Amino acid sequence: MAKTSSIEKNNRRRRLAKKYSGRRSRLKALARDKSKPMEDRFAAVLKLAELPRNSAPSRIRNRCEVTGRPRAFYRKLKMSRIALRELGAKGLIPGLVKSSW
In angstroms, rounded to a whole number, what is the distance separating the alpha carbons of residues 6 and 1? Predict the structure, then answer.
């Protein structure tokens, strides 16, 4: 099980990314638009830099929803390989059979 503070920090990052997504996308589009004057584009870049650092989607870490583990994460199932194996062995995931030979 991951530290509760790490899980909460990641959840806070998710909330901030969702909150600032519209503003961030508008500023990025303005900064990339070559038809706009250079001063406007530079001002957009400065405003983008003023946004909270944790509001960037690239800072969000994929974590297992069962254990909070940050590594060996399956995106489709939103869980780690260890949690997947445990739930599969208990028969809680339909269609998944733990192999043994």
Answer: 11
Q: For 4-29, what is each residue's pLDDT tens digit?
A: 999 999 999 999 999 999 999 999 99
End-to-end Cα distance, the chain:
30
Domains in the chain: ranges and CATH: 1-61 (1.10.287.1480), 62-101 (4.10.830.10)
Look at residue 46 and give its three-state secondary structure.
helix
| Separation between Cα atoms, residue 2 and residue 11, nearest integer Å | 13
Between CA 53 and CA 90 the distance in angstroms is 41
**Alpha-carbon span 54 to 12, nearest angstrom:** 8
Question: ∠88-64-73 over CA atoms, to 5°?
Answer: 80
Residue 64 CB burial class (10 angstroms; 0-12, 13-18, ≥19)? buried
Q: What is the pLDDT of residues 55-87, one digit of tens each?
A: 999 999 999 999 999 999 999 999 999 999 999
